[in-house]
Amino acid sequence: MRVLARLWVAIVVFLALALYLIPAPVQAQATLPQWYELRTQKFAILYADGDLAHAEKYAAFVDEVYDEITSIFGHAVPTPVTLRLYPTRHAYDAANPLAASVQGIIAHADFRRNEVVVILDQTTGQSPEEIKNNVRHELTHIVLAELSANRLNVGFHEGIAQYVERPSPELERKVAALRQALERDALLPWSALDDRDQIYGSPQVGYPQTLSIVAFLVERYSFVKLREFVTVSARSSGYRSALERTYGVPATDLERMWREWLPSYLEGGFRHNALTKYDLTPIKALIADGRYAEAKRELELAIPWLRNTQQSDVLAQAQELLAQSETGLYAEDLARQAHAALEANDYATAAHLARRALDAYVALDNRSRIETLAAYAAIADRGLRATRLLEQATALASDWRTFADARTVADQAASEFLSLGNQDSAARALALRAEIDRVQSLAGVVLLLVGLAGIVVGFTRRLVVREAEVW
């Protein structure tokens, strides 16, 4: 009995120990939310029990953010995008154990799952605009990953995602931290842009610095060039290669230029953002230089973006510039056709096209092209004049009494055609002159023969008369 009693005690202890060591599935499951879904046109919002009000708040603006971000980059990611709202950091860490040791996580994106995550209890101190910025920022990561075939490095990922955010008090804090880093000579080298540990390991420097680098590239080269850099990254060996292929400048030179520019950014330039005040100056410069196709490409990206902002005055200017760029492309096409008509010696067509192109360039105040098209028109007018002279010479040559005038006019036509390089028409004018000379020569012979015949007839008649007198 004692043995049996001891056996039962051992069994009970073993079972108690086993129950203690084996994780309780009910307790583990309790840390993970039960998800409910709220759909919008572009998003599937997943929320935990009791968070419907939060989900509805996000539902009120997420579609607008989607349209804004996809317009900026001219690239629409698949819909619906999943927006997962974790109620607490504890629930988030339970689902993402590797993130438990990382401080300061508010939101993240997973482009492979087409998912944006926001941790609700981490947003309680944020303004409404900062809450929207969380979605802007993370959705931008998904767009950038698709455009770059997930080859864009962490530095530019974070810099661009911050750049598309709307102004908020957080921006001032970032600039203050960047100013302190500059004063301490603690800025990261651009080689750190590839290093996740350096960017995320010192976010107080990494985040504001990457933002400033993107702001520099946008201000100096335009947002369209920045987007081009993202797409070029998809087929480049690294960010340095992509930068040089896009901007035509080595990355080391760009880094030096950025350092020289940085003080102006810290002194207030950080407030100028393409989202809040799109700078049309580079596009105006493109149009002034006659680079109409480049201006049109940039404007076609900027205008849909501007429609999703509150920059109605800038939008109106952009639309006007787009009309100018299209006028410039129309003028260039007319100019090419006019040049081709001149090469084909089709002076009437060339004159018509040159004048239409000239009118367009006058409207654009493109002085260099005005001079070129005025020259085209002048050449076409000379060709038309030479053509009329040849026609006049041909008409005069039809009457032997105006042969002399015909020959003079044919000479003038031939001379004009030769100066224009129109060998065929010059040959026709010279052939007409030769024909006139031949006919004149033949007419001279005929007249000479007629004269001789007249002399003979007169002499014969005189002999006959004298013989009559003798008789």
Folded structure, characterized:
A 5-stranded mixed sheet has the order 1-2-3-5-4. The termini are far apart. The chain is mainly alpha-helical. Helix 8 crosses helix 10, helix 10 packs across helix 13 and helix 14 runs antiparallel to helix 15.
Give a brief rundown of this model.
The chain is mainly alpha-helical and 471 residues long.
Largest sheet: 5 strands, mixed
Distance between the termini: 200 Å
Oligomeric state of the chains?
single chain
Kindly provide the radius of gyration, computed on alpha-carbon positions and rounded to a whole number of angstroms.
42 Å
Structural class: mainly alpha
Helix content class: 55-70%
Strand order of the largest sheet: 1-2-3-5-4
Number of strands: 5
Question: For the residues shown, what is the average pLDDT?
Answer: 85
- The DSSP helix count reads 20
Q: What general form does the structure show?
A: elongated
- List the uncertain runs: 1-30
**Beta-strand content:** 5-15%
Series of secondary-structure elements, N-terminal to C-terminal: HHEEHHEHEEHHHHHHHHHHHHHHH
Summarize the SSE layout with pairings.
Layout: H1 2-21, H2 25-30, E1 35-39, E2 43-48, H3 52-59, H4 62-73, E3 81-86, H5 89-95, E4 107-110, E5 115-119, H6 128-147, H7 154-163, H8 169-183, H9 196-201, H10 203-221, H11 223-233, H12 239-247, H13 251-266, H14 281-288, H15 292-307, H16 312-343, H17 347-364, H18 367-396, H19 403-419, H20 423-470
Parallel strand pairs: 2-3, 3-5
Antiparallel strand pairs: 1-2, 4-5
Helix pairs in contact: 4-6, 4-15, 6-7, 7-10, 8-10, 10-11, 10-13, 11-12, 14-15, 15-16, 16-17, 16-18, 17-18, 18-19, 18-20, 19-20
